[in-house]
Amino acid sequence: FGSSDEAQRGGRPCMRCRSGAAAAVPIPMAGVAQRAAISSQVCTTSASTRLAEADTEPCASHRPLERRRATRGSWAAASVLLLALTHRAGAVQTLVNGLDEPQGLALDLRGGRVYWTEVGARTLSRAFLNGTGLQIVVPPTELAEDAPWGVALDEETGKVYWTTQRTINRANLNGTGAETLVETTYAGGIALDLENSQMYWTSWAEGKIYRANLNGSDVEDVVDVGVEMPVDLAIDPLRREVYWADTRKKSVERASLDDPSDTQALNVSWQVNQTNGIVLDPYAERIYLTGSSEDASGSESGNIYRATLTGDDSEVLIGSGGLMVPYGIEYDRFKHTVYWTDKQAGLLQRLALQCDPGRIAVATSASTAALSSDSPETVSVRYDYLKHGVLTTVDCPLGYSGTARLLCEDGAVTLSSGHCEKDCPTGWVVPQANGTALSHGPIKGGERGYGSCGAGLVGPVTLQCSNGEVSIISGTCRTPRNCNAGYAVFPESARIELGELSHGGEMNASCPEGFEGSYHVRCNDGIFEAVDGVCRASCAEGIIWVDDGVGIMEVPHTAIKPGSSLKVPCPEGSAGEGIKLECASTFIRVQQAECVRTSTCDPGNETISGAVVQYGLMAEGDTVMKKCPGSFTGTINITCVEGTIQRTGTCFAGCPPGNFDDANDVVVRHGLMKHGEQWLAVCPNGYRGVIPLLCTDGNISLSCAYGDSARCSCQEVFESKEEESQDKMSLTLFAPVAASVLLAVFGACLAWASRWHRPTSACPPPTALPAAAAKCIAETFGWPGAPGGGGVGGGGGGGPPADIDLSELNEIVVDSLVPLPSYWATQEGIHIFPDTNRINEVQQLMTDTWRLASSRDRRLIAGGDRMPVGCRVASVLRIENHRGYDRYWRHKAEVSARRGTSTPFAVDTDNRMNLLDAECNEKYLFHGTNPESAHAIARNLFCIDMAGTCRGCMFGPGIYLAENASKSDEYAKEGSGVYVGLCAMLICRAVAGNVISVEDSGDFSDTVRSGQYDSLCGDLRAKRGTFREMVFFHEQAVYPEFIVIYARNYDG
Fold this sequence. Notes:
By secondary structure, the protein is mainly beta. It is about 10% helix and about 40% strand.
């Protein structure tokens, strides 16, 4: 190679292959001396030349470069010729191609690199996680038995370990300081137990698993019974277990590190032909494997599997012809990304299972014209973590109304449907015929409101807010009506005679004979209203007037003794239980009035938009609400008025199952749809895409977020293998398309499979789930081996499996059940995981909310007079209690539905941690306790029956939380055992809803539970200058999400 100075001035390292062909090998300057034995030269280029240009630009005086995989036994320089080019094939990314039998794989997440071995090239290489910056760490060996095989990393000490057929070796991450640690035979996979400074490796020919210290000492075989051909292994440091793949036994097994003789085969439910690589995510309790399996026709294909640590809930992440021989595998649990090598295809690839938080532009108008314009007005919508292949609904930002449906594929987020309507702030609108300006309050985008008429005029005037603009829908401002002379009945059952009165005018009216008192009356747009006053009927014989809701009835009565009551029959023309009167002191009070007009409406039916709504016998004034029948949606209110039926409301027709022709005349199928319901129709075999359909009153239409319907149509997929072999460019275009369709349906099938697994009486056993999911995918595409289905040249029909309802599949993709936080790793049960990524965030949150104040609850340690001035967070644990979160989420949904938008209530923890629902005042709040109790609450949740057992119940028995960490620290206690000197605090999600604030103590539990409020704020900060406490009287309103283990700081 040329010197480092030459390369830094823009030189490109080059070398000659043993075969004589020239190939560019990008190798870093670090470790160049170790590769000096390789004859080479430097071809100087411009300093701005990208490394990827080596794919098309030949070095000076050399032949054009070839991208090919070197033959076995040769130094495959061309095999590492990825040249930092990332090739996308649908959802799967190819990071490096042209490799020579890539095998072992390891991730350096701290350094942001991936390491792999190439058995054919006899090298160990590395690159950045996106495939750029390719470097050779271990140069090619002369003997095949010395070729690197398995690889593992110690990121803390910066060491890379690798196996060969004869040795275990170690070097610095850049390849310097290489040393041989152990001489062994037929070593395969290698894994490190860093906590105990030990390493494990397999001997695939001997059928053993060995262990030694990291320096190579104390070599021993720990598993040598029942093992036949272990090729790879992995360590679970949390449970102290070792897992390995036995390719001869076609199984995955595990054993305890403390007692390796006790082996156990995992309960994998797929038919494994050969198992190659294995990696664990111990925090999410998941295992990832590479291997191959046979379909019904006997064809073998490579697959990547995922299952629980016991082998249950297994699924095929990638397969069905997409892979050849996947071997090494690694998992980035922070980015939710799987990496693997394909030994036969010569590839290093990855698949992102999650999209990181970000923003996306969403159109601000639903009109086709706006969306089809060259530059439609948009608004930036924020989203949290999204799962790969799943449609997620997110709300529009503040100042806008509506939602957007987003799809995450391979780390990229696209808009599937939806738009944001700009809200209309308080203002004026003037499109009145008489030029009258209307004032209005804030109106949400796409919704209606009412305008206030000025200048002595009245309405009502209905307004519509459309993308920030207010317009009049109906009504007008008019001159108010005067009140005609007549009678009115006000409270206390007096019929008062009133004279004519102008709008806005007021008058005094005397009570009729037999009543004492008077009323002060105002005329409001033709209707008399009582301003104040009262008419009280005497207990002597006389008449009272009762308003039954339909009209005023005159009720005569006899004299009533003071303190007695009288039940009067319903007057003529009405029927019912009668009217109960009571003489309180010397005046009559109506206790009960149950008389209604005797007019009735006979049973019958009403036909609305083709829907026949039936009703029974109805009494005068009765109103019944009827749901539209069958596939119709909507409700009808039917009222009996003077023997005649009056109705309000309407019915909307649903859409029966059928076909829909897209813009390219491709026929797609849809199931039964209700009015207003969306359906994602999967394109048929030979086409890619998903067509969004909308049912509107019996009519199916395209629900496309773009003005151009062609962008929401099925696209033909190239499938001819004969043309593929003749035209590789066509293959390049075909691969992303086919993989996109695969991942779209695959994500839908996984969502469906997840729904299937939920326990219901009609569900099949969980062991049938993986086969059904695979069957769903295979038959959707018509791949070979699908039961009853055909493939290319396979004969037989496609169509969905008989036991799979595709209508449910599409519904599940669109509408999930209880949406879990996107950063959760599990789907059910109770799990507590270390969340080291949040330590700094939680530390900052507790520091920012630590107020140097104390209340009577502060218990000074050991009777001292010092108070902690802060804290130091030792660890953060994330709680995934699915039962608890399920009831919490449903309570939040109930509060949102009941309140709409709750009155805003600010706390010191606002806008911290994760994105919360501001409309129902969802908050993060603290709860102090001890470490042992924190774990108990995490599993068993809060129990109000235990409220006050420690410190009393100042505002009633409830769950007490605080916005200040220092307030909750007053309740915290140090733990015992491993928790000596450490306290615990829970960070809880809480639905505050409408909040009542009080400053004095008392039992307010009934006040909140009455429904007027959802939580209480005990504001002793305003009264005493200490703290505010939030109290919740519903257990389901609080979900403990994080346990914080911390130490108090007294020294500043």
